[in-house]
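User: I'm curious whether this sequence folds into something compact or stays loose and floppy. Could you predict its structure so I can see for myself?
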Amino acid sequence: MNAELIFGLIMLIGSAAIGLPVAYAILIAVITYLGVAGQDIAIAGETMVQRLYDGFLLLAVPLFIVSANIMNAGTISDRLLQFCIALVGRFRGGLGHVNVVASLIFSGMSGSAVADAAGIGKIIIDMMVKSGRYSKGYAAAITAATATIGPIIPPSIPMVLYALVSNASIGALFLGGIMPGLIMGGVLMGMNSWISHRRGFGQEKAVPMRQLPAITARATPALLMPVILLTGIYSGVTTPTEAAAIAALYALIISAGLYRAIKLRTLYEIFVDSARSAASVGLVIGASMILTYVVIQENIPQTISLILDGTDISPITFLIIVNIMVLLLGCFLDATVIILVIVPLFIPTCNLLGIDLVHFGVLIVVNAMIGLITPPYGILLFVINAVTGIPLKDIIVEIWPFLIVLLGALALMILVPDIILWLPKLFGYTG
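Assistant: Here's the prediction. I'll summarize afterward.
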């Protein structure tokens, strides 16, 4: 390890240790590396601007953020919740099931775990607590757990970022996330049902079947959004970025035009908030692209590949090791950082071992989402705490059963690749 790399790592770790945002920590580390190496520090700015300019796929990120914020501000969330209550509220632990099903549906619109938790998640927590059947900690924990489904079922911001660093098919990644997302929803509902029977949680008053058509009709415009999005992508009519633009426009039309739930001032606030969120993500993306320059300069991916090649490691063993590593990193790092900074180091080895990049990518995203609810530093735990005021310790106590079943689902996806690859292959993906 040479001097410039050592100094760069010291600055990166030191900056992160004093609480500097990760994007700034990476920028300082890279500039230190270039300075010690005697290279022009302008390379940092040039690399960031050039790669961001070439990244047409990245436009999907702010567009998905805008669409999620529009839906949170409008009445779309309320209509979807009423639909979910009519569908599964009648079963024991009904609002817990509603929580899961709402996340499954809403995930087809937002692509963001934080958007799900802070938006529709807060509404469901209030409903669960007011019903008097659920503790605050349990309501918060199941909401955090179900929010992890958001970036698994398409659209998915983390999958867009993974496609950027791996050149994997974004369409195949979106398809590959559908079955894992449904499995995650299934195991969470199973755990909620088991806990509900043990603790005696009641069910909601059953909605008469004659009212179901009317409730479904009210929610239909919102339910059509993921259908329009995916149809555009897989029919070849739109690129993922163009589909994201259509999703944002459609959310605006049904919220402001059809439901008349958004005023001009609210729309301005939505755009400002979305711009801030997009800028935050953009800074991390830009910084990671400069860091990639350093990684290539130091031949780090090739070194890792040579080390692993010499150990005669099997693909399954490699996947298990990488997933354990990502799971541990996910306790401390944001999913965006993991995907943009850590994951590219393993792409050459995946190619060497014959591991399908779509399978690997979906596993990484699922893993990174589980990291968001892993104590002590899971970001979703802090988000739920911030938007509801429920003590963090109460949430952590209740999160463990959901964390265990999600890890079981992840293990199944590692061992049975066709869970992820079945739908992409059905639509012609060859790997």
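Summary: Residues 264-297 form the longest helix (34 residues). DSSP finds 23 helices and no strands in the chain.
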